[in-house]
Amino acid sequence: MLDPDLLDILVCPETKEPVDLAGDDLLARVNQAIAEGNVRNRAGDTVGEPLDEALVRSDGRLLYPVRDGIPVMLVDEAIPLDKVP
Prior knowledge:
Distance between the termini: 26 Å
Largest sheet: 5 strands, antiparallel
Number of helices: 2
Radius of gyration: 12 Å
């Protein structure tokens, strides 16, 4: 679980909008799409590993993965949620 103090200062590197932990329902939907091979990040790479945690931008358009407790705040690694079935 991410440190709440860290979460308070993290923002999207593209728009500077705040991010928050993704809810269980969103993670389940994204992980189902990942299992089906239907998720690509902004760089166009297929996302193959399910997510235990992720951060969602406040506008709900991008999801940033959290790997081994470390937020991956790179725009190319972000998952566009409008492309997730």
